[in-house]
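Hi U.,

Before I forget, here's the chain from the pilot set. I'm dumping it here mostly so it's searchable later in email.
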Amino acid sequence: MYIRNSMLTGLAVVAIGAGWLGKTIAQGNISSSNVTYFDHEKVNASFAKGGAPILFAGQSGQGNFRVRTASRIQTPEVEIHSHKLGTDVLYVVSGAATFVIGGTEVAAKTTATDEIGGQSIKGGESYRLSKGDVIIVPPGVPHWYQNVETPFLYFVVEVP
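Structure:
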C-alpha cells in the first residue's frame, strides 16, 4: 500500500513537472518577431517632431491601431474635436492640461474624414491631466485641451 501511494505521488509530481516544462518550452517558442521596441531616443525624436506623428501602426484581431506621440501648447484658437470612429487612449508623459470631455459641440462641422470640429463644448466634464494620467475617449465624444502647461507630452493609442 505504501509503495503504491509513493508511486502514484511520484507519477503525479512527474506529470505536473512535465506539464509545466511543456508549457514553458511552448512559451519559449513564441516568436519575438511580433514584438516592437522603441528606445528613448526614437521616442524623444518622435515627440520633437511636434503635432501627433505616428510612432507605430499595426493590426490587432479587431482592426488597425496606431500609437502616436503628441504635444500641446496653449493656443488662442479653440481646438475642439471628436472622432466618428475609434477610441483614443491617452497617457500623459509630462506637463499638465485641463481636458474637457463630453457635452455637445457648438457649431460642429466635419474637418476630416472621421473627425468633427467645433467652436466650443456645451456641458461636459473637466479633468486636470498630468504626468502618469490615462484617459480613454470613446468615439463621438467631443474633447478639448485648456490651460496647457508645457511641455505637455502624451501618447495616443488609437484603437478600433
